Amino acid sequence: MSDGRHWKIETLKLKIVEMLFRKRNRKADDHPLKDKAARGIAKFLLRIQTKFSEFMNVNTKNIPVKGLKIFLIAFCLFGGGFSIYLIAEAIFKKDKQQPSIKIDKVNVPKYYDQSGSEKLQTEQYVDEETFRGIQSFERYMDSLKETKSGRKLHDSILIIRPGLRDSIRMLKEIYNSQIK
Question: Does the pTM exceed 0.85?
């Protein structure tokens, strides 16, 4: 409260930003661009919050505390009463032709419990040229591990494409199963 006359809404920008974006153990799927975008969104929302709080402070500084409390109680009673009215109208409405809330059965997709991989397994094929390309890429990735800058590039590739190793392994398995 400021001057005992109105509530002052304060935002603790630095603490909120620090709490939201403090360093934590990064997972393989974290990406610096995601953090930058989230930080930008948080700053934007904090700026809007600060402007709104300043606007409300200016417009309510001349209203006594008792008046603010009466307004708050009236607002809560009106909002709660209107919510109860909408719920009661939806439940007890006489006109059933156009119900406010309609309860229907859930439509379950025909193949909800199948991944689709059953169909793909019969159509999987890796030709000789693709397999040679996979082997060449594997050699390239292995050669990156030999230097410090290469290791950084290798790790960044695996961070950006976390399923890459699994995809290569699966393609090799498909190719090897074709040969037999």
Answer: no
